[in-house]
Amino acid sequence: MTDSNHPPTAAGAETDFAGKMAYGDYLRLDLILGAQQPRSAAHDDLLFIIQHQTSELWMKLAVHELESACAAIAGDELPHAFKMLARVSRILEQLNNAWDVLRTLTPSEYTEFRGDLGQSSGFQSHQYRAIEFLCGNRNLPMLKPHAHRPEVMAELEGILSRPSLYDEAIRLLARSGFDVGPERPDLREQRAESDKLRAAWADIYRAPDAQWALYELAEKLVDLEDYFRRWRFNHVTTVERVIGLKRGTGGTQGVAYLRRMLEVELFPELWHVRTEL
After folding, report:
1. Nearest to 87, CA basis, from 107, 116, 58, 121
2. Residues 6+ away with beta carbon under 8 Å from 32
């Protein structure tokens, strides 16, 4: 059976878009699909570009959701925050699945265009940095790769000037009557792990029915970091599979650097409290 037997007009579908907004207009597909400009003749250069461009789009949405989740927690609108955090976890799942596509790139195929990347590297993604800063990993030396772009620096400095997602969760615990210790004076600085905060989470986990909203928030944060850790792990595995132990294009130690990043904890007390329960 062919489409001619069921013309779209028979179902009331629009087919004349002169002067009207069509699918491609709304999505600005002219810009999106015109943004892939391989710098080599290698067949797999397009794969590499699309992999990273789509990842950046998902990260843009993650930043949007994380900023909104911070505002929702600050306003005690926890159901809204839970929905947004669940969405971020699903976004991270999408990012994880994308590594499966990139893993089809073999070392010999990557070598054909690696030299055309110059010094560009995922290490320099400011949206990845924004996600880390928003969650609470405030590693200030990581601002340096973005110093040549004032608009990016302004965006990242704006995030650093505000409480992180974890800061907002801690403030919520304080508003709920838990002793979480004093707030650090400079929100830009990396916070130190706190025994008082771990004890507060322990109280919540030992009696979840008494503080169900805080218990659910804790699990939403753990879920988010669980997916984030998988993303990092899959990154390491993919890089090692494609380039082995070579240095990264951006000058990092490649796999060795990425393995160290696996040790970074976004919400340390929520992980360490499990040992006490």
Report:
1. 58
2. none
Q: What is the pLDDT of residues 19-57, one digit of tens each?
A: 899 999 999 999 999 999 999 999 999 999 999 999 999
* Cα distance between residue 10 and residue 146, in whole Å: 54
What is the pTM for the complete model shown?
A: 0.91
- CB of 178 closer than 8 Å to CB of 203: yes
d(C-alpha 7, C-alpha 194), whole Å = 66
Phi-psi region of 45 (alpha: psi -120 to 50; beta: other; left: phi over 0): alpha
Where are the chain's structural domains? Answer: 45-276
Query: Which of 88-102, 130-144, 189-203, 242-256 is predicted least confidently?
Result: 242-256
C-alpha–C-alpha distance, residues 159 and 189, integer Å = 12
Cβ neighbour number for residue 197 with a 10 Å cutoff: 24
Q: Which CATH number is associated with domain 45-276?
A: 1.20.58.480
